[in-house]
Amino acid sequence: MPSSLFSFAVVGVLLAVGVVAQIPGSNFKDFLLKNMVVNGTIPRSFAIQPVTYYETIPEDQKLHEYTEPQFVATCGGNVSADALNNYTFQTEVWLTTLGLNIYDGAIRCIALSLVGEGKACLNYTVETLVDHKTAQFGDIRGDKECAGVMEYGQCTDPQQAGVCGFCYGDGPSDAAKSLTVNNSYFFRLIGDFWAIEGTVDERCPALKRLWTWNDYKPILGENAWAQLIGPIHNAVLMNNGDINSITDEDPMFILGIQFLTGLEAMAVGNTGAYYYTPRNTWFGYSATAQNIGSTVSIENQASLLGGLKLLYDVINGKTTTQYKSVLPKLQSMITKLTTLILSAYDRDLGFFRQGFTYDPIAGTLNWGQNGEPLFAVDCQTWVSSVLGTRLIDTTFGDATAYNLWQTVKLYANYSCPNGDLCGVGYTFNNISGQVLSGEWTYGAMNWLKIMQNDSDYNSTLIGNLNSDELAMNYGLFTYVVTSTPINNSTESYDTVLYAGSRYWIPFGWFANPLPALASTGWAVMLANSFNPFHLHGYLVGAVADWKF
Ligand SMILES: *[C@@H]1O[C@H](CO)[C@@H](O)[C@H](O)[C@H]1NC(C)=O
Ligand SMILES: *[C@@H]1O[C@H](CO)[C@@H](O)[C@H](O)[C@H]1NC(C)=O
Ligand SMILES: *[C@@H]1O[C@H](CO)[C@@H](O)[C@H](O)[C@H]1NC(C)=O
Ligand SMILES: *[C@@H]1O[C@H](CO)[C@@H](O)[C@H](O)[C@H]1NC(C)=O
Ligand SMILES: *[C@@H]1O[C@H](CO)[C@@H](O)[C@H](O)[C@H]1NC(C)=O
Ligand SMILES: *[C@@H]1O[C@H](CO)[C@@H](O)[C@H](O)[C@H]1NC(C)=O
Ligand SMILES: *[C@@H]1O[C@H](CO)[C@@H](O)[C@H](O)[C@H]1NC(C)=O
Ligand SMILES: *[C@@H]1O[C@H](CO)[C@@H](O)[C@H](O)[C@H]1NC(C)=O
Ligand SMILES: *[C@@H]1O[C@H](CO)[C@@H](O)[C@H](O)[C@H]1NC(C)=O
Ligand SMILES: *[C@@H]1O[C@H](CO)[C@@H](O)[C@H](O)[C@H]1NC(C)=O
Ligand SMILES: *[C@@H]1O[C@H](CO)[C@@H](O)[C@H](O)[C@H]1NC(C)=O
Questions:
Q1: What is the pTM of this model?
Q2: Are 191 and 213 in contact (CB under 8 A)?
């Protein structure tokens, strides 16, 4: 893409031959538009390319999480650990082949809106999210009424049929913990099809049952992107940045305002935080997984804070709107949430911790979530992008944000063969080695762009940040920016792989070197220096202008 200086210099030539300069990142537009579920209605998070990718994964690159048999009602008895592990891989294959993570959907939306295809995003926002359905699923929200919390022994589900429902938060009764369809969280991963023809459920192959969709996790962070960040940028960009021309009927308000009611139910005591997921959400058989509904993810809080601030800025910025009355509530939420996120920073560790587990009876919290590492790259890059450099540095000392970036590199860099910085991974490198994350490297570049603009660092530090940003951009272009066929097409489409290699991320999923909506959408945002956490994409902390 021409730099802005270059386009200025040649503008006369361009006009002379009648060529209109393309919006940066437009080369990724076709991948974002055309990577749709085959015979379905929704975009697809990944393209399985090459089509034989999953057939080539060796056994030692699969998760072997089970060592004991478990009772599986649909199989009519206990299933061996070996069969359960096979099923885990089978599940990964189908969820990756057919699923859309609604966070990826939001990133796609923002990117399409930036390259002049906002209508495709609006279509998804209305037909899939507001209508909360896909081809075969009449409801993609976790709104089944709470019939008691299983972890507390209030409800049992011997047939594993989901009869206990979803219990949101710590309300005094099952009714108080039940959310209506419009207020509940969406499932983080949605699909068009429930049962996949031609498959055999590998837990009990002799029964010859089809593999069926099994991911029903209403997660906060994905919802913050799907219900706030994605639709709000779409509305602002489709109205050419003119907030007053966004109507009160816009889907950004339908989704965003209803979401606030759900959040109220999910408040974590008086901490200012919001729970990760309702109780009874199925995260596996382990003891920590039973407790997942009592946990909080700091990355999720950062996404939510960014989204709430966007909603605040739109409502506050509009001359007239029926939603002005929501401002005091938003104001209080934003203030408390910012304070909570700041408290995740540990001066001794020198980074923001990943999450905590809350005890609603004692009203106490313990840092750590679901046995996961305390250090996550996105808890530094996204959290710092939302807080902004000045707030971090005034709270924790001069150049804290800059030093935090040095810590991220020390723990989680991906280095090129010559040892230079080429990107970042997901967590401590000493857990399972280095990996290049497409999406999280763009997230780091976004943070460095913000730091260069919103800090008062001297030119030496700014120069270092700039050269790190460029080094990572080089790494991405070298290792994950590529082009791919879709649906066995002969044509190839520019795209960005999710990661440089297959890698078990200890936060609960595999990274794969597959063309991905998330990485590709982030590439478009970075090409436009568009920071998704700020209205109009400005390179400044989301709460930098907040009055506490
Ligand atoms: C792939 O198939 C889907 C749905 O069948 C379609 O929407 C999409 O445009 C196709 N992509 C290409 C590149 O043909
Ligand atoms: C898509 O639908 C067409 C027409 O029904 C069918 O022939 C084709 O096999 C389907 N493709 C897939 C991948 O399901
Ligand atoms: C089934 O597995 C459970 C462990 O999940 C075990 O406690 C139980 O004894 C097993 N039952 C049979 C019949 O093997
Ligand atoms: C698990 O899958 C492997 C092949 O991938 C197969 O050899 C084995 O029999 C399967 N185990 C069970 C219990 O089905
Ligand atoms: C969304 O796209 C589908 C398929 O192209 C079309 O039938 C539908 O009318 C569109 N909906 C909106 C709200 O634009
Ligand atoms: C849910 O919201 C839709 C608007 O998107 C509205 O038409 C519908 O009546 C609402 N349903 C309930 C139960 O409030
Ligand atoms: C990059 O990570 C490795 C560990 O994988 C570490 O030894 C090295 O110091 C890190 N590099 C920088 C510049 O922090
Ligand atoms: C990995 O590195 C971190 C930071 O130095 C350290 O706290 C942790 O104990 C290390 N973990 C392992 C398994 O070596
Ligand atoms: C720039 O700031 C850093 C951190 O405060 C400091 O160590 C360094 O000496 C400064 N460099 C110059 C040239 O002022
Ligand atoms: C692409 O080709 C593979 C193998 O040849 C086939 O299994 C798959 O269904 C094809 N995909 C589409 C969308 O036609
Ligand atoms: C840089 O930050 C200032 C506020 O400090 C903001 O007004 C400006 O829009 C930002 N620049 C860009 C390019 O986003």
A1: 0.95
A2: yes
